[in-house]
Design goal:
The chain has 29 helices and 24 strands. With about 725 residues, the chain is an alpha/beta fold.
């Protein structure tokens, strides 16, 4: 692994005052104040940029911005680093200036338009070398000048291979990251999904699980199971559990097989630190730790894995007035610092507040793929969607076809496209194999040889690999039919394992798609007071309030309004203050989830709290609410703790639309915790959250969840901490 340049040694120019960029075209004058405004106006219009006021007002304004952008030199962009809202350059921007100075000097006097033409004439190795001399904003500015053909053409020329147990990103290959997520981290369910992915020829990049519970104990258990599967099957791959990086480091230090280290990245310090709870300094520490004690040190060239995707910064309102594509490019400048084994782009994951339809998602994915590869990153793509957006499976499939033509290193394998834990829709193992067959691609070479030995693949007479006799049959990894059936019972939304060529059999597809359609309908259901009537709870125990989202359309497309109370509701709440615990109920993205769970969950939760002599305020019911509404409510009622019970975005089947989560919020004060080691990087924020998710009859049953939420609330009050800081305190106390 390469040595890191100390952040203090990275040269970055001093911030400059915003200037006006003006041009006159066809008798019209166009003026853009500041580089951020110009960058935003030059991009294709997207929901997140529109809501942030960063998009062009018309196509003519957009083309005027692109003309002005074409005339700017790379040196001009270098001399004008983008700043935060206080006019300072943050650590993410500083890291972006760790470029190849020699490569930059060769192009610094070129305009962006000239550079674009120059790149069109160059082979991939030259393009990649030029990319090493670009900051994220330079790459983003260049990208905004390109059409679809140009984004695909240039991306296809660039190769970004990496190596762990397998080599990914090599010419002629298309790899995959197997994601066997389960709503409760049930190890049997994880095992069956892993077997299924391996039988489909996926997982040559990685077997990686997003955990439902982010604790050292749980993540270590999942890592142990994945490691056992890898060893028993002999599959040449690597494993990862995508918990918070601090939790993974704790697992590693206790001897768990953290082979590839994961973290989500953001393009501004405010998002990275305040929302993702990580700093550049901590990323440096984690990178050095993997280099020192990572299980694959000496074998792998790279051991880091990052996920990014346009929109997280603007969705949190912490984008520093920078457009989504430029924030994404800043993520790539940060990722480049650590020479990662994988970068996975999940644009489309957030929802309609960032990407409202297929076209927005498709173009953003093509932009991200090009920017990442230009900056030297091993880009895997996950064009994805949620059911509360206007993005569909057809748009997702169009995106994968274009991205494969552009040379994407890998895709995800989420069984039948439906993630049972994260409640979104991604590519599947069937998609991976279909794209391999359309474009003549093969898995990673080490993995392909293993798959041939298992009959999953066979050698093709024309060269390469084709599906073998055991392709798509997960039972080959089971000792008996009884074992396979036992594993199947632990897997929700298991619609069948029959295949037709590289695709799921028609009956399986029809069942899957109908369940998806039924789940999408759940988003448009309303909270019904009749269904919240609970035996032994008087109606006046509930208090209904309003948010600033006064319609479902506003609620879905402008989530920030669902985080704030109406003025009247805020005034009304001041009369019920200073309780120990405040419970808030909101439909979120599924009123059905509230109707399904609250009648059983709420009495158990109240009993668990009140039996410990905790004072519980009136139960607040907030239609059209979002999670951070609890912060607005806490400011009015001043509780020691707030529990938000909210409907999750519906997942892949009709039953999953009944899934809800509990967000337990502790309103602490920002201060360092002296009881924790300095390298933990954990501090108390103004609001800390512990989350219990997947509450429904196929996840955590509501009766059990009521007791679990009460126990966790008591634990938070005892230690005066929640989230990662609570986990660090519990770990320190246990160790």
């Amino acid at each position: 692994m390469k040595p890191l340049t100390p952040i203090a040694d990275i040269r970055i120019p001093a911030p400059q005052p915003d200037m006006d960029y003006t041009t006159r075209i066809m008798g019209r004058t166009f003026t853009f104040h500041g580089l951020k405004r110009l960058l935003g106006a030059a991009d294709y219009g997207k929901a997140g940029d529109r809501s942030a006021g960063l998009s062009a007002a018309s196509e003519t304004e957009r083309e005027a911005a692109r003309s002005l952008m074409s005339s700017l030199t790379l040196e001009h962009l270098f001399d004008h680093p983008l700043t935060d809202e206080e006019g300072r350059t943050d650590s993410v921007m500083r890291v972006n200036y760790a470029i190849d100075a020699t490569a930059f000097d060769e192009i610094r006097r070129m305009t962006l338009g000239t550079l674009k033409d120059h790149l069109m004439r160059q082979p991939g190795d030259v393009i990649k070398r030029i990319g090493s001399g670009l900051t994220g904003p330079m790459a983003a500015a260049l990208t905004k000048l390109m059409d679809v053909h140009e984004l695909i053409l240039l991306s296809k020329k660039i190769e970004t291979p990496t190596r762990a147990r397998t080599r990914i990103g090599q010419q002629g290959t298309l790899c995959s990251r197997l994601q066997p997520n389960h709503p409760t981290d049930h190890l049997d369910g994880l095992t069956l999904l892993t077997y299924t992915g391996l039988s489909l020829g996926t997982g040559d990049c990685l077997i990686g699980v997003n955990p439902a519970e982010d604790t050292v104990q749980n993540i270590s258990a999942i890592l142990g199971q994945l490691d056992a599967i890898r060893r028993e099957t002999g599959a040449p791959t690597q494993i990862c559990v995508l918990g918070h990086i601090k939790t993974q480091i704790s697992c590693l230090e206790q001897g768990a097989p953290v082979e590839i280290l994961f973290q989500s990245l953001a393009g501004t310090d405010r998002t990275l630190v305040e929302e993702f709870d990580v700093t550049v300094d901590y990323l440096d520490f984690a990178y050095d730790t993997m280099d020192r004690i990572g299980p694959l040190r000496g074998q792998a060239d790279q051991m880091m894995y990052f996920e990014t995707g346009q929109g997280s910064e603007v969705s949190y309102g912490k984008h520093n007035n920078i457009d989504m594509a430029t924030c994404e490019a800043l993520c790539y400048g940060l990722a480049r610092r650590y020479d990662p084994f994988m970068v996975n782009n999940v644009t489309g994951f957030i929802g309609p507040e960032t990407h409202n339809d297929n076209m927005e998602m498709i173009l953003s994915n093509l932009q991200d793929h090009f920017m990442g590869k230009l900056m030297g990153l091993p880009m895997g793509m996950a064009p994805c969607y949620t059911l509360h957006s206007g993005i569909t499976v057809e748009g997702q499939q169009i995106a994968t076809e274009l991205l494969t033509a552009a040379g994407a290193n890998y895709y995800m394998d989420v069984y039948l496209n439906s993630d049972r834990m994260l409640a979104y829709f991604d590519t599947s193992g069937h998609d991976d194999q279909t794209l391999r067959e359309i474009y003549g691609r093969s898995p990673a070479p080490e993995y392909a040889e293993w798959a041939v030995s298992k009959g999953i693949f066979a050698r093709s007479p024309a060269g390469g690999f084709c599906r073998g006799p055991h392709w798509g049959d997960p039972s080959i990894f089971c000792s008996s039919e009884m074992e396979f059936q036992s594993l199947s019972e632990s897997l929700p939304a298991a619609y069948g394992f029959e295949n037709a060529g590289p695709r799921p059999a028609n009956d399986v597809s029809r069942t899957s798609r109908f369940n998806q359609a039924a789940a999408r309908n759940a988003i448009y259901s309303d909270l019904d007071p009749e269904q919240l009537k609970i035996h032994d709870l008087e109606p006046d125990r509930f208090k209904w309030v309003a948010t600033l989202a006064d319609s479902r359309k506003v609620h879905l497309n402008n989530p920030e309004r669902g985080t704030r109370l109406s003025a009247q509701s805020a005034a009304d709440l001041k009369t019920d203050c200073s309780k120990d615990v405040q419970i808030v109920i909101s439909d979120g993205l599924s009123a059905d989830a509230i109707h399904h769970n609250i009648p059983q969950l709420l009495p158990v939760l109240l009993d668990g709290l009140e039996s410990r002599d905790l004072r519980v305020g009136k139960i607040i019911v907030a239609p059209f609410g979002r999670v951070k509404l609890v912060e607005s409510i806490a400011q009015e009622v001043n509780p020691r703790l707030v529990i938000m019970l909210i409907g999750e975005r519906p997942g892949g089947d009709a039953q999953a639309s009944k899934s809800m989560s509990a967000y337990i919020m502790f309103p602490g004060e920002t201060k360092n915790d002296a009881s924790l080691p300095e390298e933990s990087g954990v501090q108390a924020d103004a609001y800390e959250y512990t989350v219990i998710s997947n509450i429904y009859n196929r996840g955590i049953p509501p009766l059990e969840a009521g007791s679990l939420i009460a126990e966790k609330a008591l634990e938070i009050l005892k230690h005066q901490a929640a989230g990662n800081r609570l986990e660090e305190i519990l770990k320190s106390a246990a160790g």
